[in-house]
């Protein structure tokens, strides 16, 4: 999809980057768990990338949507989508809270075999939930926001998002 507003284009760019990372996570962890071990440097690097993404992007992205976009949707009469997406944010945050310490431990190779199995389970759950969530936002949230924002509000939000 093509979006016209700077705010929606930025969010869409982040969605695409997240989908790329989630695809790599699924590719690495979806096969049978043979060989998941602290000695695998590729998995350790991927875990580190995933940890950074969880720390930096998900919180910032979700908080911005909840603070700036969902109230605008509600005022526009689209409470249903705002509430659904907020509920999904909460569920994704729960998975991320369990996953983040595992990914942090996996990156330097300090995770044991049971930890790798927990990491695998959480990473795949996050990939499933977040990919589905991104699809909903791309198909419903971003087009609505594109229509709702005028140029001045879009500029203010884009600057606020970039500066936060």
Describe this structure in words.
By secondary structure, this protein is mainly α. It has a single domain (6-163), classed as Up-down Bundle (Four Helix Bundle (Hemerythrin (Met), subunit A)), CATH 1.20.120. It is 84% helix and 0% strand. Helix 2 packs parallel to helix 4.
Summarize the helices and strands and which ones pair or pack.
Blueprint: H1 6-29, H2 41-76, H3 79-106, H4 113-148, H5 151-163
Helix pairs in contact: 1-2, 1-4, 2-3, 2-4, 3-4
Q: Averaging pLDDT over every residue, what do you get?
A: 91
| Name of the level-1 CATH class | Mainly Alpha
Q: What's the number of structural domains?
A: 1
If helices are DSSP runs of H or I spanning 4 or more residues, what is the number of helices?
A: 5
CATH names the topology as Four Helix Bundle (Hemerythrin (Met), subunit A)
């Amino acid at each position: 999809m093509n979006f016209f507003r700077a705010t929606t284009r930025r969010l869409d760019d982040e969605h695409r980057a997240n989908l790329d990372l989630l695809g790599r996570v699924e590719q690495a962890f979806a096969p049978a768990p043979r060989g998941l071990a602290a000695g695998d440097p590729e998995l350790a690097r991927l875990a580190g990338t995933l940890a950074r993404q969880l720390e930096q992007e998900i919180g910032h992205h979700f908080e911005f949507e909840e603070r700036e976009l969902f109230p605008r949707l509600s005022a526009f009469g689209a409470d249903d989508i705002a509430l659904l997406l907020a509920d999904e944010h909460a569920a994704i945050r729960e998975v991320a809270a369990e996953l983040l310490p595992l990914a942090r431990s996996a990156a330097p190779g300090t995770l044991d075999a049971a930890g790798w199995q927990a990491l695998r389970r959480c990473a795949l759950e996050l990939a499933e939930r977040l990919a589905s969530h991104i699809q909903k936002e791309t198909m419903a949230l971003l087009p609505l926001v594109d229509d709702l924002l005028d140029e001045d509000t879009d500029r203010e939000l884009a600057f606020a998002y970039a500066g936060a």
